[in-house]
């Protein structure tokens, strides 16, 4: 307090003396008048005696008037003295208030004097302003007020400094209680004031960010004591009904009116209204006007402080270094290692995947900058090392956009995504094959570790963005990565696994072999502790300003090192691509996925007796091989859904001109071809959609056709045909045929259930394009040939029939058949009669010219003797519309050749010779 001012009350004016009565002056005229009266005897002389009292009264009145004037003069002088004293006191009080405000500014004070932010001032750091109120001024006013109220009030006013900053020690904890929004606003002002007083190195805000207080993460004070600033005080925030964490040194809490107070807070502010609050410290209470701050104001100040931190401390984590500056850092690109400057701390933070690894785990919540970190790491390694030293396999399970641009780098031998279908599964098999290949190469060179092999093998870095999604889709990958984590150091295979969470995602077997750990903002304390052994990552600030802020713990680090990871923008990547474009692309550890279309002419030759079918992918052997159908083997069944390419495979086989018989639909041609096969089997029998073909025949014909096909399949490969069937379903009669063929190609199906029902492995199910399927345990893309290649030949028309003898025609529509026969046989002279007309004209003699009698089965059943006479002397024709008549009227037990109903077909039957198909009349139009 100021002590150079001395004040004293002015002396109060004394009360004026009462005026004395002029007795002698009054008696003189009286005595003179009496004397004259005695001398003269004149009564007029007594008037002189009257003048005495008059003179006495006038003198008294004159004294009283003078006394009153003197008193007023003294009072004026006294009031002027008091006014002067008050002005001096007010000036002194204002100087004291200004000095206090300068020494202890509130948020508004810092706003008007920004140079005061983080400036060390004695006594400022130990206290915080909780509002404005009355406090002792420290001014002493001497003198006696002499009972004067004005003097007493002046002395009392001089002892109080009104609307002065009220400060309290804050390190024993602060609490605010009041209506929810008001308590939050007052707490916001207290927190911002503390951040304006203390630089980040002196104060760190730790613990969970309260709901609605996201702006706190923008503050440069947000985080943990990870930079070795052992003197930094840690401040925890406690929201209503949420206890502040115990990891801090000081607690700032706020409660609603019904909330219980945090016992760790010594000072309590009871906020009743925006203009009225009460401060309680122990048994002492004081009224004050609190300072309040809105969320938007707090957020703006937080951003301003973050910018100030970056400007004042360019080497701090709050400052973002350009990635190109880190490329030029000392120690980058050490031969035989994988050293890059990954981020900027107090100095560039060097990370060696070989020495600090051999594997790394990178964790962080969405938006923390995980993908940008991986991109920067990969790009920096590609710039520092050649393709003979390091190669990459990138797995992006966040939609395929994180690593898309990196494929232009020659070091990157492949990028797989969650959009690749079974591409990730191929990569698993390829990784196993790559490990076996490296073991063979190292063993052949007589070394056990890649470090002893020189440039014999480049190191392979497998980078996964979103490891949790990868192992969720492919659980078997956990075992593969655990194996790589255990054996990868010697083989030169390194893992960099990015994930949002670590707990429950990354197995202990991987973590134990991944000492290089990088944590951006963690989801919770448990994840941070699992990865780093400290909850520090959960305290890292969030928001765009802190994106890329990371804690890096290497094998030799006793505690994590904080760093800001720079972003690699498109211009940076283009620069690196241009610099390394001349480098030779290394051998890929896996082949790219099979093409979706392979034309027949592009298939590799399979030998003279083998028909090329397609190209199979064998990732376990890191190779591709041609697959084919060898003439003389039993054959192949192709199972697939609609549009899967089954018919295209059949066309491909037929296009090689190996005397193929092609059956594509139910009909006379299919029946006849199978019937001929019993005595003269074709070299190659192709049946398209055998399930649909069988369904196109009636039940009896389908059963007979199945038996005949099964007989052909049993003979296949041993003097019989090579059989290729396609089908959509493997059930019923089709299952008997499929079981007879040793090889099965499973093409695409719309659902897993159909895929499994067709004989496919449920694990291998995926939505496949046309011509893609599994054959002999390998994924295969079958060749494609145009639609006009290998089409089935049409069956020749059966011979036209003309009667040479008396003939009975059995038809369901005798009138229609008679009309068509008369039209077809016009000019032949052959009479065509209905059964009723023939009965009226009498029976024909054997020597009579041939005649044809048409009747329904029921009519011939009723005139059995006439039918028998015709059978004995002539012939019987049964229309294809009533095949049952062969058995019921003629007693024929063998199935006749299949005839197309409605196409003018019929069977010519003779006793003992069976039935043969004939063309009775032209087809109906």
Automatic annotation (TrEMBL):
GO molecular function: ATP binding; DNA binding
Keyword match Cell membrane: no
Entry keyword Glycosyltransferase: no
UniProt keywords, alphabetically: ATP-binding, Membrane, Nucleotide-binding, Transmembrane, Transmembrane helix
Protein name from the UniProt record: FtsK/SpoIIIE domain-containing protein
Database matches in PROSITE patterns: FTSK (PS50901)
Domain of life, per lineage: Bacteria
Any single Pfam family the record assigns to this protein: FtsK_SpoIIIE
Residues annotated to bind ATP: 364-371
């Amino acid at each position: 307090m100021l002590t150079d001012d001395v004040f004293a009350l002015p002396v109060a004016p004394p009360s004026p003396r009462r005026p004395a009565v002029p007795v002698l002056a009054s008696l003189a005229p009286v005595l003179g008048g009496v004397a004259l009266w005695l001398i003269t005897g004149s009564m007029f002389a007594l008037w002189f005696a009257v003048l005495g009292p008059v003179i006495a009264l006038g003198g008294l009145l004159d004294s009283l008037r003078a006394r009153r004037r003197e008193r007023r003069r003294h009072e004026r002088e006294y009031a002027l003295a008091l006014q002067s004293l008050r002005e001096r006191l007010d000036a002194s009080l204002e100087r004291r208030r200004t000095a206090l405000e300068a020494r202890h500014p509130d948020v508004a004070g810092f706003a008007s004097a920004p140079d005061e932010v983080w400036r060390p001032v004695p006594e400022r750091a130990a206290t915080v302003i909780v509002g404005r109120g009355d406090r002792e001024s420290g001014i002493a006013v001497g003198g006696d007020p002499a009972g004067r109220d004005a003097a007493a009030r002046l002395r009392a006013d001089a002892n109080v400094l009104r609307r002065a900053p009220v400060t309290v020690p804050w390190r024993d904890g602060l609490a605010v209680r009041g209506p929810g929004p008001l308590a939050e606003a007052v707490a916001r002002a207290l927190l911002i004031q503390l951040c304006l007083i203390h630089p980040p190195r002196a104060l760190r805000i730790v613990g969970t960010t309260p709901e609605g207080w996201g702006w706190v993460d923008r503050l440069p004070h947000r985080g943990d004591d990870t930079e070795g600033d052992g003197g930094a005080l840690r401040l925890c925030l406690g929201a209503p009904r949420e206890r502040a964490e115990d990891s801090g040194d000081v607690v700032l809490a706020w409660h609603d009116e019904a909330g219980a107070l945090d016992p760790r807070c010594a000072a309590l502010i009871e906020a009743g209204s925006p203009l009225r609050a009460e401060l309680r410290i122990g048994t002492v209470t004081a009224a004050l006007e609190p300072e309040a701050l809105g969320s938007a104001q707090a957020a703006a100040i937080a951003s301003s402080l973050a910018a100030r931190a970056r400007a004042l401390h360019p080497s701090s984590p709050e400052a973002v270094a350009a990635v190109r500056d880190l490329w030029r850092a000392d120690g980058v690109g050490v031969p035989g290692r994988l050293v890059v400057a990954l981020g900027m701390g107090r100095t560039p933070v060097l990370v060696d995947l070989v020495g600090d690894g051999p594997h790394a785990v990178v964790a962080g919540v969405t938006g923390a900058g995980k993908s940008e970190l991986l991109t920067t790491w990969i790009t920096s390694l590609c710039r520092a090392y050649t393709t003979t030293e390091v190669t990459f396999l990138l797995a992006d399970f966040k939609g395929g956009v994180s690593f898309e641009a990196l494929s232009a780098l020659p070091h990157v031998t492949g990028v797989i995504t969650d959009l690749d279908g079974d591409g990730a599964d191929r990569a698993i098999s390829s990784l196993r094959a790559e490990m076996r290949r490296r073991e063979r190469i190292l063993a052949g060179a007589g070394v056990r570790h890649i470090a002893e092999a020189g440039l014999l093998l480049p190191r392979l870095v497998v980078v996964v963005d979103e490891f949790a999604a990868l192992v969720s889709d492919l659980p078997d990958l956990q075992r593969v990565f655990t194996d790589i984590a255990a054996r990868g150091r010697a083989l030169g295979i390194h893992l960099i696994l990015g994930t949002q969470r670590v707990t429950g995602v990354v197995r202990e077997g991987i973590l134990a072999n991944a000492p290089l750990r990088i944590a951006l903002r963690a989801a919770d304390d448990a994840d941070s502790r699992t990865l780093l052994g400290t909850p520090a990552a959960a305290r890292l600030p969030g928001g765009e300003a802190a994106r890329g802020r990371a804690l890096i713990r290497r094998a030799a680090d006793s505690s994590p090192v904080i760093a800001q990871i720079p972003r690699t923008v498109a211009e940076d990547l283009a620069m690196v691509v241009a610099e390394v474009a001349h480098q030779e692309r290394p051998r890929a550890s896996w082949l790219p996925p099979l093409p979706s279309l392979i034309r027949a002419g592009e298939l590799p030759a399979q030998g003279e007796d083998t028909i090329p079918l397609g190209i199979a992918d064998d990732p376990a052997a890191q190779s591709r091989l041609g697959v084919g159908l060898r003439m003389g083997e039993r054959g192949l069944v192709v199972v697939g859904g609609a549009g899967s390419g089954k018919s295209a495979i059949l066309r491909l086989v037929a296009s090689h001109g190996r005397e193929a018989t092609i059956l594509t639909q139910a009909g006379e041609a299919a029946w006849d071809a199978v019937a001929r096969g019993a005595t003269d089997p074709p070299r190659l029998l192709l049946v398209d959609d055998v399930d649909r073909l069988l369904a196109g025949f009636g039940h009896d014909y389908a059963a007979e056709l199945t038996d005949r096909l099964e007989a052909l399949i049993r003979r296949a490969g041993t003097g019989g045909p090579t059989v290729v069937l396609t089908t959509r379903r493997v059930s019923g009669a089709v299952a008997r045929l499929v079981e007879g063929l040793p090889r099965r190609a499973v093409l695409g199906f719309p659902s897993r259930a159909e895929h499994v029902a067709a004989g496919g492995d449920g694990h291998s199910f995926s939505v496949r394009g046309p011509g893609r399927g599994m054959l002999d345990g390998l994924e295969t893309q079958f060749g494609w040939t145009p639609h006009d290649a290998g089409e089935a030949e049409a069956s020749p028309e059966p011979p036209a029939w003309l009667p040479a003898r008396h003939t009975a025609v059995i038809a369901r529509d005798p009138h229609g058949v008679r009309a068509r026969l008369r039209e077809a046989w016009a000019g032949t002279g052959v009479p065509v009669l209905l059964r009723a007309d023939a009965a009226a004209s009498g029976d024909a003699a054997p020597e009579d010219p041939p005649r044809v009698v048409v009747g329904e089965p029921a009519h011939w059943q009723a005139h059995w003797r006439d039918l028998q006479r015709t059978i004995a002397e002539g012939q019987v024709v049964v229309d294809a519309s009533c095949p049952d008549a062969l058995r019921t009227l003629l007693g024929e037990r063998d199935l006749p050749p299949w005839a197309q109903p409605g196409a003018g077909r019929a069977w010519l039957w003779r006793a003992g010779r069976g039935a043969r198909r004939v063309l009775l009349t032209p087809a109906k139009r």
